[in-house]
Amino acid sequence: MNPEADKLYQLLPAIYRMRDAEQGNALRALCEVLAEDIAVLRENLDQLYDDQFIETCADWVAPYIGDLIGYRTLHGVTDRTRSARAEVANTIAYRRRKGTATVLEQLARDVTGWNARVVEFFQWLETSQYMNHVRPTNLVTVDLRNWEALERRDTAFNGIAHSVDMRRIETQQGRYNIPNIGLFLWRLDAFAVRRSPVCRVDDERFLFSPLGNNQQLFTRPQAETDIAHLAEPLHVPEPISRRVLDRYLAQYYGPQLSLFLEADNLDTSVNQVQVCNLSDDGPSWAHLPVSKVSIDPVLGRIAVPPGTPPVNLRVTYHYGFSMPTGGGSYERGKTFALGGGFASVTQGVILQAELTAAQAGGIVQIDDSGRYAEALSLNLPAAAKVEVRAANEHRPTLVLNGDWTITLAPGAELTLNGLLITGGRVRVTAAGPVGTRILRLRHCTLVPGLGLTSEGEPLSPSAPSLVIEREGTTVEIDHCVLGGLRAVDNTEVSITNSLVDATSPTGVAYAALDGLGAGGVLSIVNSTVMGKVHTKRLDLASNTIFAAALTNGDSWSHPVWSDQNQQGCCRFSFVPLNSIVPRRYRCQPDLAVEAALLEADQPKGSLTGPETQAITLATQARVRPAFSARRYGLAAYGQLAGHCPEEIRRGAEDEAEMGVFHDVFAPQREDNLKIRLQEYLRFGLEAGLFHAT
Prior knowledge:
- This protein has about 700 residues and is an alpha/beta fold.
- It is about 20% helix and about 25% strand.
- It folds into 4 domains: about 5-50; about 60-185 and about 670-690, no CATH class; about 190-320, no CATH class; about 335-595.
- Helix 1 packs across helix 3 (about 25-50).
- The protein is globular, with a radius of gyration of 31 Å.
């Protein structure tokens, strides 16, 4: 019985309860009905009490409590800003420290979700010092023996005095002046690779990167627990330099720190590790060790003493990237296509054997971040559903010995999740009867150019990463990095939140098998395409950057080319002007050219043909995507540069940036910070935002 009903029933006189029991408990049943409404009323009263406190109130109440203390809502683009609860709860604590550098730094972290550091530039001005308040570290003459101050000059951790700079800090030009406050933001995050086998050069030389390229190592940021503490280099995802690692090795090297080595027959404790510059020295490397293991964090190289080849050498390290894309040690559990039991694969197990056993239907899960060098193939029968995936928070490397050939019968579905694939193409063969089949790529990297040299250049720049030879195949690509695609007619390709890189704007990113004709129907959203595109029909292009160009004497007539334009839409995207695509809606540089011509054509009709052409060319040259890095393997790969035009940085439908990192919502994060600065910045001071990465 409902406890509320029992309590109500016991309040009745005993004589009524006795008579009720004799007559079938009709009165008890009535009490139970009344008790349900009483329980609802009691729950509502309890919630009304809870709604007086920000920690326990309902979600809809939080903005009203915030309004009582003057809280202004923000763009809900990060976990902390999607709900006002946390920030409203902290507002009083923030206001008690209003105007201080520590609270500005905490605000920057809270509202942007990025690591941040605040710098009071007036602290580093060259000034005549008051003898009762001497600043011994603020010297006009630079100490050339202080390597750390020299290495960190003009960064967020600058320690060198500067002369006054009269330019405005809001333009990111001026810095060192009396009213200036700088907020440095780290747009890159550090992603871990755990216990991954090294790439062997010879018995003494090894590389951190499983692809065999030079890899800049990053700091694993340590959490700050005190609001009154300003961030230090260990608290942000900074690239690790040689001198910093050498000086603070114990703070960076360890199983739970930024990097660590393990080997079965080698002592890799911190006392047996040293930091060296292992740059190329002819066919060998410079400064090869004699007694200790050497690490170069800038190039991601390892050298061991001669005569003791390491057995099973594994590395744990961190690399920089803009967002969780292309596989890695981040949460991917919600993207798994199939549930239930799975075949587990670890180092020493033959992957092909497990694939063959599961190809009639099942899951093959790789439970480590190892390297698997094999020749792979899959043959899925009709209606089979197979998923080949990395375990959550792991990124194994598949080094293909030739193409990975996949045969899909009608109704078959294959999902690849969390894999780093190099050495060959993923190829869906033309075998099998007519029918529909599905290939899904989620959080995978198919290395552009099939592989990388030690310098990070593509091994086969013109080779595609994915080839679809079978008509009737539906390809779904989500949160992936891959090279060019080739797809036959009567295929459908859907790309979201991904980067398709033909290794050059003049390369072929999407086309038919011959690299000239039209590939299958294409739909692409929130993505970046580096290279030319020729599709049978462009059903949808939204918030996408087509960084494509033609060479002199190019066999292509248009950089982006759709054969059937009676249907489809190209919206809020960057598409070169000389492209043939379906109807464009608020695309660039069309919109910018139209605005420039409208502004210059005063009075209306006064522009001549040559003037119109000159304005169009000038605007087209200005409004084009600029990237921090175009080469896969670099930390800032695919990231829009700070000087990228606002028409592209804020050109998406929701005023975020176009391209693969649309969902980072970088412009909205910066706007959130500017909103808060108006409230918390001390009167008379000016602030500027600087991207540390």
